[in-house]
Amino acid sequence: MSEKQDNQLSRREFLSGSTVAAGLAVAPGVFLTLTAQAKPADQAVSSDNRWGMLIDSNKCANGCTSCVSACEQENGWGSANPTENKSSPEQKAQWIRKVTLRDKETGHVQSLPLMCQHCEHPPCVDVCPTGASFKRADGIVLVDKHICIGCRYCMMACPYKARSFIHEDLQDQLPHAPRGKGTVESCTLCVHRVDRDSDKAVPACAEACNSEGHKAMVFGDLKDPDSEISRELKNYGGEQIRADLGLNTGIRYRGI
Amino acid sequence: MKPVMHYSEIEGRSTGYYGLLAFLGAIIAIALAATYHMEHSGHWVTGMNNQVVWGIPHVFAVFLIVAASGALNVASISSVFGKTAYKPLARLSGLLAIALLVGGLAVLVLDLGRPDRLIVAMTYYNFKSIFAWNIFLYTGFMVIVAVYLWMMMERRMNQYSKQVGMVAFIWRLALTTGTGSIFGFLVARQAYDSALLAPMFIVMSFSFGLAIFLLVLMASYRWTERPLGDAMVQRLKNLLGVFVAGVLYFVIVYHLTNLYSTRLHGVERFFLLEGGIYTQLFWFGQILIGSLVPLFLLYHPSLGKSRTMIGLASVLVILGGLVQMYVILIGGQAYPLVLFPGKVPANISYRRPVRGQSPLLRCPNSLAGRSEPPPS
Amino acid sequence: MTRLYWFARNLPAGILILVTLALPLVVQGGGVPMPEVPKAQRHYSADSECVAPVAEMRKNHMEYILHQRDETMHRGIRTPQFALEECINCHVPENTEVRNQGGKEE
């Protein structure tokens, strides 16, 4: 048994180690500033953390869709899963999308990625009849696909249109991102990465944005006053989309 | 002297009876085939998408559920408000209410992404969800009305029918409030976020349910060659007129309150002026055919006496009701969410213009599959 | 009413006939072939086929499948041993003809 444990540990260390190495190589400095308490993998997440992201629309490049492609690759949807081929573009999964906006008065054009905002008071969780739509203690909003009955009430309730319904049979899903016909899904904030190594994890979208050099997405722990995201938000502020609803989103924006 | 009432069953051996049974059975068979096709292939065959997530099935389902509560009108009038003239019709009223509710629920359940997980819906509850409350409201309604029917049909239990009728009456109001609240509590959607939807759904239930009841009543009395007094039909049609006017009143108030706040001008412009098929359906389907024409027919001094015209008015109320559900449900979803006030999308990826794109026209499949009448 | 009595009177006979008709199905297993579960290609470790000893897996499979699943999903407890990846590694080996066990059509 102990030998097996060692075996697993080394495997896990190998996995997380490789992630860090890749992350450091592409984006030095970003991970180093994250000083959240690491959570051992066999312990439950706690409300001592709240994961969030700060997205700077001014740094987000018009026409760049690296974050979307990275999410597709990481979670196996869109172009990364060709078995979803019967659905129309409006029916296909869209965990994250790029939105380009034009100000009606000034004509100013800007773009930003839009996905699940991981609200503190998520309407999708309130309306879900079975509790399949839920918020983890660390603030990540997920769909438990084992008990989702596919009623789509959460999609009606979501102010951000962040959720997708799987319209057809899928194959070749990724082990860390199970997806199945007839259930609802959305951005998981790359929860599998966060759980594997909460210390240094960064979602695929932010990782891609960094490696493109835009650095428009900062991921981190909103409850850790020393994290980069907390310091940025404290010093320079950030806005919520539809702040009027009082949902206290975990994804914050700048320049909207 | 105590009036003696005699009930006799419909014999149920005529060709017409079996014909009706076969006709309804065929529709249910088509519906089941369509359901199988959809659940096997996935929902892509229906034409729904990630913006319009509730479609034609929900239009029919919500209509039937709302109408179910309204079909109980006559029983409530007889038991709760003590109008003995309606008593002979109370049983039909209760039976029709259960049938309509079962029909509506069947549609709702069969359209789930995972209908096989119905057991999950019954074992996992999130009590903050209005949907979860409604599961209890709907099943409770069926149980209460079934008990109510028993009280009415079993002579020894007759004495309790008033009390049970009272419970049923309160429960149906709660049921329709719950159904209206499914939409009324969706704060994020400009078209739904209104507490007015709950009372509006109650009056809609009165109107749709009574229209269906009138049709079933006139048809069954005619086919079984039983006499149906003019006084009764006149009372019911006057009542229907009041309810239709009531629905119209709530629709007007709903739109006036929206028009008052600048924030909602966009959604009102969409529904009343520029929404393409939704605007047309609203003005011609809901307002003209579903409200004004029936009101004219019902209150016209001579037309209002003709049973054909009363039947026609009932049919129009039902059609108008379906259109109204369509406009509320699908129009409300088709109107894009306002995320960035003062800004417009500069690209059209994913967020396509919805005008003129009618899910109705794109999903004959679900239309055929979901317009099943209740299995009564 | 008479028809109801007729139905009630004949109900036991009807059930008997149905059971008799269904008997061959039960005996032959309904003609449904046993599912072909592909052999695992990669074992969990050198000394163990599965993530736990076979006897333990046989006894506690449902425990892992349901409770471990909920622990992972809702509380974020992810042990490499009971990760979905390990189930898939063993149960759905790569390079097999059968890609989707559940959706195999006749």
Keywords:
heterotrimer, A: 256 residues, alpha+beta, Alpha-Beta Plaits, three-stranded mixed sheet, two-stranded antiparallel sheet, 9 strands, C: 106 residues, mainly alpha, 3 helices
Describe the structure.
The complex is a heterotrimer of chains A (256), B (376) and C (106). With 256 residues, chain A is α+β, with helices and mostly antiparallel strands. Chain A is built from 7 helices and 9 strands, in the order H-E-H-E-E-H-E-E-H-E-E-H-H-E-H-E. Chain A has one domain: Alpha-Beta Plaits (2-Layer Sandwich). In chain A, the strands form 4 sheets. In chain A, strands 8-1-9 form a 3-stranded mixed β-sheet. Chain A has a two-stranded antiparallel sheet with strand order 2-3. In chain A, strands 4-5 form a two-stranded antiparallel sheet. In chain A, strand 2 and strand 3 form a beta hairpin. In chain A, helix 2 crosses helix 6. Chain A is globular and about 45 Å long. The N terminus of chain A is likely disordered. With 376 residues, chain B is mostly helical. Chain B has 2 domains: 32 residues; 289 residues, Formate dehydrogenase/DMSO reductase domain (Formate dehydrogenase/DMSO reductase fold), CATH 1.20.1630.10. The relative contact order of chain B is 0.14. Chain C has one domain. Chain C is built from 3 helices and no strands. Chain C is elongated. Chains A and B meet through strand 2, helix 3, helix 4 and strand 6 of A and helix 5, helix 6 and strand 1 of B. Strand 2 of chain A pairs antiparallel with strand 1 of chain B.
Compose a concise summary of this entry.
The complex is a heterotrimer of chains A (256), B (376) and C (106). Chain B is mostly helical and 376 residues long.
